[in-house]
Automatic annotation (TrEMBL):
<protein>
    <submittedName>
        <fullName>Maltose-binding protein MalE</fullName>
    </submittedName>
</protein>
<dbReference type="InterPro" id="IPR006059">
    <property type="entry name" value="SBP"/>
</dbReference>
<keyword id="KW-0732">Signal</keyword>
<keyword id="KW-0813">Transport</keyword>
<comment type="similarity">
    <text>Belongs to the bacterial solute-binding protein 1 family.</text>
</comment>
<dbReference type="Pfam" id="PF13416">
    <property type="entry name" value="SBP_bac_8"/>
</dbReference>
Length: 411
């Protein structure tokens, strides 16, 4: 950097005085006292562990953490985007990495500064999805993918293919032991994240790939012959076919059937495993089995990270605290052990739990979810196609309509 460039540089300094009060001297020399609290929007799984971390954060950083778990997942994303510019509502929120493109395009997320040591402490593949135009826009924390969750009180062996799942489920139904063959959460809005392993085994592909391995968003494959064939397989399992997968299978259905103990299998993620175990169920997980004559059932992997709101009242505290705290080995080890998920901190994943071990071993067989700014709309188009096909619509018509809508979205 030249002397002229150095003369243009300004420094922002934060510090804690002898009384524990936190201050900031901004780049223009103004001195302000910072409020010593953070408002975080998180899911209940992250909230449980941060309740345990509160005392440590208070003693180490002098900051009180306030948790809001009223909205999670897609509801949280829509709420945050709608309220992002209302200063003070939230300082930090947790979401998957495929939000980052939209958040950056909406100027609804603050870049994060990580030291070289902090970067080195994180798994390379976990940090990359949060990088956009040379900046880092989130701190990766946990990883998740879709697995086959098995009620071992009903099933002894892991099925080797999806047809075996059906065979075992039907045998339990004939014995009046099982109510459903398998639960795949669909609901009125669909959930393509969960159904995708079966679609991929049938040959479906969402986007093409660049030579460097990156997603090519302009090469849309949902209406390819192999993708239409995969949708036809889902239709055969749907309401106009065998009736195994139905749109009425929402979260309440999961609670009544799988967690109620009357269904041997479920396609779900680590949060579903945690809820089943909290209910006292004896469950194990395995990779989703593909169709007997199909390809591998490749799930998407999503990485959940902590984002800093650019209009939060305490974003300066968040920018100081989160990079330090969330790259600590002891913190991420405790997080992994508590929620049963792999974490982004190197060597911090607790492998004492079979679910975590399976998730780690399955990672190399999965695909990192795309994170383009258009992805929320893309998932919406794919979800509508999923619901239509399961409800009995023509798979080719639904696939082509979804592909046309995706091309318009990304053009």
């Amino acid at each position: 950097m030249s002397d002229t460039e150095l003369e243009r540089c300004r420094t922002r300094l934060t510090f804690t005085d002898a009384t524990g009060a936190r201050w900031i001297r901004d780049e223009y020399g103004r001195l302000d006292c910072l409020r010593s609290e953070l408002v975080m929007w998180v899911g209940d799984d992250i909230a449980k562990i941060f309740i345990e971390f509160r005392a440590d954060i208070q003693s180490s950083y002098g900051v009180d953490v306030k948790l809001d778990i009223t909205d999670v997942g897609e509801r949280l994303r829509r709420k945050y985007i709608a309220e992002a510019r209302q200063a003070g509502n939230v300082d930090v929120f947790v979401g998957p990495h495929d939000w980052v493109g939209e958040l950056v395009s909406e100027q609804a997320v603050e870049p994060v500064a990580l030291s070289e040591e902090q970067r080195q402490n994180l798994l390379d593949f976990s940090l990359q999805p949060f990088c956009f135009n040379g900046d880092i826009y989130g701190i990766p924390a946990t990883m998740d993918t879709v697995m086959l969750i098995i009620n071992v009180d009903l099933v002894g062996d892991e099925p080797s293919c999806f047809e075996e799942v059906v065979e075992v489920g039907r045998a339990l139904q004939r014995a009046n032991v099982g109510q459903e063959i398998i639960v795949v959460r669909v609901g009125p809005e669909g959930d393509p994240f969960l159904i995708w392993p079966l679609l991929s085994s049938g040959g479906a592909w969402l986007f093409g790939m660049e030579p460097n391995g990156a997603w090519d968003i302009h090469q849309v494959g949902i209406d390819s012959p192999e993708s239409i064939s995969a949708f036809e397989r889902i239709a055969a399992l749907g309401e106009a076919g065998e009736g195994i997968i139905r749109c009425e299978m929402d979260q309440a259905w999961v609670e009544r059937t799988f967690i109620g103990g009357t269904c041997p299998f479920m396609l779900g993620a680590y949060g579903d495993v945690a809820r089943a175990r909290d209910a006292g169920m004896n469950v194990v997980v395995s990779p989703v089995p593909g169709f007997r004559d199909g390809g591998p059932a490749r799930s998407f992997t999503t990485i959940y990270g902590f984002y800093i709101a650019p209009f939060g009242r305490n974003r300066v505290i968040a920018s100081d605290l989160l990079p330090d705290y969330l790259t600590r080995f002891d913190v991420m080890s405790a997080l992994s052990a508590r929620i049963g998920s792999p974490v982004a901190r190197k060597e911090a994943t607790a492998l004492t739990d079979s679910t975590t071990s399976e998730l780690v071993s399955a990672r190399d067989k999965t695909m990192l979810m795309p994170s383009f700014a258009e992805m929320p709309e893309v998932w919406g188009h794919l979800a509508r196609a999923e619901v239509e096909v399961i409800a009995g619509a023509d798979p080719g018509v639904s696939a082509r309509r979804a592909a046309d809508a995706i091309r318009r979205t990304v053009s």
